[in-house]
């Protein structure tokens, strides 16, 4: 299975939400990021969205269960 995030230079926005890229200061800040588990949420990032943790050099990704998990260890 695959998912298209961007097509022809534009990020897709559909029932899954919008692909987002975040930068946070600390690992603890990842817990404050939206997950989109609530379908009625205005800010609904789609799975595959990423978050860079600036002070730890880590990257998190939003998985299909809509949980932020470590993609790259710092």
Description:
By secondary structure, this protein is mostly beta strands. It has one domain (about 5-70). Helix content is about 0%, strand content about 35%. The protein has strands at about 5, 10, 15, 15-20, 20-25, 50-55, 60, 70. It has a four-stranded mixed β-sheet with strand order 5-6-7-8, with no helix packed on it. Strands 1-2 form a two-stranded antiparallel sheet. Strands 3-4 form a two-stranded antiparallel sheet. Strand 3 (about 15) and strand 4 form a beta hairpin. The chain is globular.
Quick summary:
The chain has no helices and 8 strands. It has 74 residues and is mostly beta strands.
Low-confidence regions: none
Rg value: 12 Å
**Number of spatially distinct domains:** 1
- Tally of strands: 8
Instruction: Briefly note the structural class of the backbone.
Output: mainly beta
Widest β-sheet, arrangement of strands: 5-6-7-8
Report mean pLDDT, rounded to a whole number: 86
Share of helix among residues? Answer: under 10%
Distance from N terminus to C terminus (CA atoms, Å) equals 28 Å
Largest sheet: 4 strands, mixed
What does the secondary structure layout of this molecule look like, with pairings?
Elements: E1 6-7, E2 10-11, E3 13-14, E4 17-18, E5 21-24, E6 50-53, E7 58-62, E8 68-72
Parallel strand pairs: 5-6
Antiparallel strand pairs: 1-2, 3-4, 6-7, 7-8
């Amino acid at each position: 299975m695959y998912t298209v995030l961007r097509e022809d230079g534009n990020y897709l926005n559909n029932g899954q939400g919008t692909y987002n890229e975040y930068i946070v200061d600390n690992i603890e800040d990842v817990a404050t990021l939206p997950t989109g588990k609530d379908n009625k949420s205005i800010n609904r990032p789609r799975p595959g969205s990423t978050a860079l943790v600036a002070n730890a050099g880590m990257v998190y990704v939003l998985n299909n269960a809509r949980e932020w998990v470590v993609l790259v260890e710092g």
